[in-house]
Design a protein that fits this description.
homodimer; about 200 residues; mainly alpha; Arc Repressor Mutant, subunit A; Tetracycline Repressor, domain 2; 2 domains; 9 helices; about 70% helix; DNA-binding
Chain lengths: ~200, ~200
Amino acid sequence: MSPGDTRTAILDLAEELLRTRSFNSFSYQDIAAEIGIRKASIHYHFPGKEDLGVALIERFRLRAGAWASRMVERNATPAEKLEAYFQAQFEILRDEGKICAQGILSAEFNALPERMKESYMEFLEEQQQWLVRVLGKGQELGLFADDRTPEELAALIQSAMQGSLQIARASGRPERFQAVAEELVRRIFTAPETVSLPDAAAS
Amino acid sequence: MSPGDTRTAILDLAEELLRTRSFNSFSYQDIAAEIGIRKASIHYHFPGKEDLGVALIERFRLRAGAWASRMVERNATPAEKLEAYFQAQFEILRDEGKICAQGILSAEFNALPERMKESYMEFLEEQQQWLVRVLGKGQELGLFADDRTPEELAALIQSAMQGSLQIARASGRPERFQAVAEELVRRIFTAPETVSLPDAAAS
DNA sequence: GTCTATAGCGGGATAGAC
DNA sequence: GTCTATCCCGCTATAGAC
């Protein structure tokens, strides 16, 4: 194994466990068993579970930042960015049994270690602000009725996506997520057909 | 103490702990310490933690049923019922640091004991169906544009409420919940002013 | 119905050999 | 960087006295 591989393997598995079960519902033992090392070895990479949790969130933030940069490099229009955003949400659900880390972390928020709370709040803020910026540009281009502020639109979209991923998984009805996404697009855009969503069949 | 009091005290505190921290983040010890009994005494009332969890959900279901019945007795109109529904969501947030049990349980779903999963799914279904029925009646009365099915409206409302409660708490910005609720009402009703929401000041 | 006492496990974490 | 061995703690749960 090249250096960093174990660390990455730990992070990858921890991410999967976080998104399937929640932060307080998985242990170092779960990780050790799955990737074939001992608990003590995990402590070498992440001294405490809080460190692992913070590293996870920081990786989410970096990943989101890189994703946003790619959109910029492609000179994506606000409509294209929003379409990509919605499609990314569909990807999350396709990942059998998992929901977005955002949702898990905010539901479990009070039970998280202090540094994770701080890191998570920054993550949440960044996500929110990205949406606000894109929605603001979209509004200038007439994508939405201009009687709403981008902040309110962003809050609605973020909330609905998070809640419907959770409900769709728990109820075993992925089509409920589909319904919410379509409903949102229809109710927000003046010309909903500018944003195309994946088919319900997928999942 | 009259019989049943300890049981109720346990349930009340467990509900509070569930809604502040999540099911897997509180223990019998937390309850025992707070209400001044011993861990073993809790096992007398609820043999296992799973039993406590199921009892909690069953109580949520009974409570929701009683609430709906009261609406019926008052001959509430669909608009009044929906207004009451939204106002109930505001109450949840006012309860400092707590979010709705629905949200916690669906986020933690995969990490819940089997019987809790089953009970929760029935709870979710009942809530959904109540909304669908009320929205259906409202549609007949022309409260909404009739190009949407009540099922889709219900899914959107439920998701957005759940997600925004979580986000509002984690970000320490209750006004974000306010914004989402207002945005929803505005986007769903043909005459939004028929449903009045509490003021942002409250929280 | 509540208590004391304790079993038994699994959690996070550390020391020190290799 | 990974291992073995071990610590200490808190958890759920049970037995049995009162």
